[in-house]
Amino acid sequence: MKVTGVSGPDAGQIRAALVAAARNMTTMNVDMGQLRTAVKPYPDVKHLEVSTQFPHGMRIRVVEQMPVAVLVGAGQRIAVADDGTLLHNVVPNSSLPEITVQVPPGGQRLTGPALAEVRLLAAAPQPMLSKVGDVSDGAAHGLVAQLHDGPSIYFGDSAQLPAKWSAAAEVLASAGSDGPVYIDVTDPNRPAAGAGSDTSTPSSTAGSPTTGTSN
Q1: What is the span of the domain harbouring residue 39?
Q2: pTM for the full predicted model
């Protein structure tokens, strides 16, 4: 039997747990429930892929959780996956978007307001995700993503996030060398962009992003 895809400080324990669980299985009788139970203590494991080759070959591929953000608070940095799983054993990459929290969470799953910010990042296309420096959730504009050396993107609530990301990408693609300071995609069908601190409701033509200036 071969176990692949594991990394990090728990790799040896995950591999040993899977080998022990599969010891009495055959290629004709693979118990996926038993294998999942064996790795349940390890939140870094997202799911398992098993292939067999008669009569005795078995290959287990571990698909690990990948971080989409890092929670920052009280001097701690904790990587978090797109479903809110806390990856305590993953060293956060400095390029990950940051989410500021007052109290660093414990346990295996993130709860509370910060989960909405994680879901915002989980909905982002990879090319856009790599541009995000940090995200926040406030009264003025709801969910906000601040791009590296770029504008803030105002999302409002968590509805239609994929459409909102697409609208933001279209505005960015059409922006000139002096790009906007903010992009408002609260209504993804009526995106608005401007060069000032926006506190108004976008009034662009439906389906056509506009660039304006707010005072």
Answers
A1: 2-64
A2: 0.79
